[in-house]
Design brief:
Layout lengths: L5 E10 L2 E11 L4 E5 L6 H8 L7 E6 L2 E2 L5 H7 L1 E4 L11 H5 L14 H14 L15 H14 L4 E5 L7 H16 L3 E5 L3 H7 L2 E6 L2 E7 L5 H9 L17 E10 L3 E9 L3 E5 L6 H9 L6 E6 L2 E3 L4 H7 L1 E4 L3 H10 L8 H16 L1 H10 L16 H13 L5 E5 L7 H16 L3 E6 L2 H7 L2 E6 L2 E7 L5 H10 L1 H5 L2
Parallel strand pairs: 3-8, 3-9, 6-7, 7-8, 13-18, 13-19, 16-17, 17-18
Antiparallel strand pairs: 1-2, 1-4, 4-5, 9-10, 11-12, 11-14, 14-15, 19-20
Helix pairs in contact: 4-5, 11-12, 13-14
The protein binds adenosine-5'-triphosphate and magnesium ion.
The site of magnesium ion has 6 residues, from α1.
């Protein structure tokens, strides 16, 4: 069992101003799931990108199947059987599934012409081996995130991968999609594939991995057998201290009503949503991924159009706004997807008709970014955002640090109501509590706060009141002593049957 498929020895990688990897050694065994954990910016993605041919290490060696590995690029790595499934999916939306699976390695005849039938046939076989329900001809842009991930995983079949690296694969998957993914991972494992699994979700780490390696500031803190360790030990290795499961709740001092919605409905997404939130209040919106929570707040913010419903701002009825108007009124929406956020910042002013609202976000935030440098500095230290300086491009920040940046950016706009959609997704365990403290601080300053979260301890811990949503409807409201995990589970699971039967 001590057989090793890939071994990294003393790898070092520096970027201007940061040593991302400092003499890192690490190995992967066939048929194991090896977790890589550490704070945001610890170097996890960088290490994996060196294995996948995206970064050239400054020093050190990589051995693969007993030989020294030299890679000319990501396609070379893929051809040799090392596949990285990115933290931010990286497919070409306008191409078909088959074209994406074999991207850069399309089969051609001796005249350089694409062998379409072969491409289709091989892609179809790879999809079938994974039990995918979609075919090779579908355009990738029309697929859900989970399906797009399956397209990336299909490359493992297509290229007969020996090593597959998952970088935060479940960040935007529903529970059942996660189960499906774990099933796929177990299948790869049974075939002897060596798997690296990066995640900030500790329950997943303890569920699916065999060994855990902890990185901290670019250095390996140690590698342990998952069965022989526990959460406390891993946390201590990651951040140098243990964490108490303690949430700070803002003092419950409420002012006037800031926002009220009545009968908000959108066919196929949600119906008859009514609630209000006051100054100084943190309102939690709990539900499973897919319950319609994001759609509701996007509609309030004006990113989506409602079919029916009324909106009151500071007790006066207003027309359902467009994003520009809601920002002017004093609303801020920190969306859950940093991928799209990050993308937009890279796209700049380029036309992108499918993401008009996101383009607006970026215009606004860039304005604020330059104006409110001082405020940003404040949040940079409060959220311990790891950047070399204000000019460092978003694309050079680690995934979690991009997420923190998105949050800080919106706080610079000085809103009256801030809506936080999954504010700690992709955030390391140490920084999560900093974000919880920040939420309490904002409420105590008199902001109305809406927090969407699929993590029950989080939503119960930070909120004064919680609405439970299931299948597009608010099914229960809890406050005070009634705010318990049992009640929330009960509310979202009981509501399901009758609604689904409609
Ligand atoms: N292309 C780049 N140019 C400059 N600096 C970079 C680049 N890529 C990563 N870094 C820096 O290297 C460090 C490690 O980043 P990395 O993305 O590996 O972190 P991570 O452990 O994956 O974090 P997260 O959990 O947030 O995804 C960070 O300080 C990051 O800003
Ligand atoms: Mg990362």
């Amino acid at each position: 069992m001590d057989e090793v498929i890939l071994e990294v020895r003393d790898i070092t990688k520096t970027f201007p101003g940061v040593t991302a990897l400092d003499s890192v050694s690490f190995d992967i065994r066939p048929g194991e799931v090896h977790a890589l954990v550490g704070e945001n910016g610890a170097g996890k993605s960088t290490l994996m990108k060196t294995l996948a041919g995206l970064h050239k290490p400054d020093g050190g060696e990589i051995f693969y199947q007993g030989e020294e590995l030299r890679l000319s690029g990501p396609l070379d790595a893929r051809r040799k059987g090392i596949l990285l499934i990115h933290q931010e999916l990286s497919l070409s939306p306008e191409l078909s599934v088959a074209e994406n699976i074999y991207l850069g390695a399309w089969p051609t005849n001796r005249f350089g012409m694409l062998k379409k039938r072969e491409l289709r046939r091989n892609a179809k076989a790879a999809l079938e081996a994974l039990g995918c329900l979609f075919g090779p001809d579908v355009r990738v842009g029309t697929l859900s995130v989970a399906m797009q991930q399956m397209v990336e995983i299909a490359r493992a079949e297509a290229f007969r991968a020996n090593v597959v690296i998952f970088d935060e694969p479940t960040a935007s998957l529903t529970d059942s999609e996660k189960d499906q993914l774990f099933h796929t991972i177990r299948g790869l494992k049974a075939r002897g594939v060596g798997i690296v699994y990066i995640s900030h979700k500790m329950d997943e780490i303890f569920d699916i991995t065999d060994r855990i390696t902890v990185l901290r500031d670019g250095q390996v803190q140690g590698t342990v057998e998952t069965a022989a360790t526990d959460l406390n030990q891993i946390t201590r290795m990651m951040i140098g201290r243990t964490l108490d499961a303690y949430f700070v709740k803002a003092k419950p001092e409420f002012g006037g009503e800031v926002l009220r919605v009545e009968g908000l409905s959108k066919r196929g997404l949600f119906r008859d949503i009514s609630f209000s939130v006051r100054e100084g209040e943190v309102l939690g919106l709990y539900g499973l991924v897919g319950a319609g929570r994001s759609e509701v707040v996007e509609t309030i913010f004006g990113v989506r159009k409602a079919d029916a419903g009324k909106l009151y701002w500071k007790e006066g009825e207003v027309a359902l706004p467009r994003p520009r108007q809601s920002i002017d009124m004093g609303m801020a929406l920190v969306p859950e997807s940093r991928k799209e956020q990050g993308l937009v910042l890279m796209m700049g002013g380029r036309e992108n008709t499918s993401l008009p609202h996101l383009r607006l976000f970026s215009e606004v935030s860039v304005m604020n970014w330059t104006k409110e440098m001082a405020v940003f500095e404040k949040y940079r230290s409060a959220l311990s955002i790891k950047t070399t300086g204000p000019d460092q491009a978003m694309s050079q920040l680690s995934g979690g640090n991009q997420q923190k940046f998105v949050l800080a950016k919106w706080l610079c706009a000085d809103p009256k109501l801030i809506i936080l959609d999954e504010p700690t997704r992709g955030i390391d365990v140490g920084s999560k509590s900093a974000i919880h403290e920040l939420i309490a601080e904002l409420a105590e300053q008199g902001l109305a706060v809406i927090v969407i979260s699929s993590e029950m301890p989080e939503v119960l811990g930070v909120s004064h009141r919680v609405l439970a949503m299931s299948e597009g409807a608010i099914v229960a409201e809890f406050q005070g002593d009634a705010m318990t995990e049992e009640h929330l589970i009960d509310a979202v699971s009981h509501a399901r049957a009758p609604v689904a039967a409609e």
